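Milestone 3.1: sequence recovery, worked example.
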């Protein structure tokens, strides 16, 4: 798996997941369950990853959409 972006913004994360799925990628969100530990205050970033063989396509999609903030 290749981590693409880390963000604390749940709305942006949801948008990026939808964007990658529409492009045919299979994104996975790591650290989603950390909210149970942090009390839902959003201080720990969630990581967005894709399988290694989809990384180049996913990075291209994110760059074309102008979504490079927090890119790993």
């Amino acid at each position: 798996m290749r981590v693409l972006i880390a963000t604390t913004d749940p709305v942006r994360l949801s948008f990026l997941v939808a964007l990658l799925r529409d492009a045919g990628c299979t994104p996975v969100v790591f650290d989603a369950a950390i909210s149970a530990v942090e009390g839902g205050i959003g201080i720990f970033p969630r990581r967005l990853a894709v399988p290694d063989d989809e990384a180049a396509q996913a990075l291209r999609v994110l760059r074309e959409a102008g979504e490079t903030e927090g890119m790993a």
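The longest helix spans residues 10-22. The helical segments are 10-22, 35-38, 55-64.
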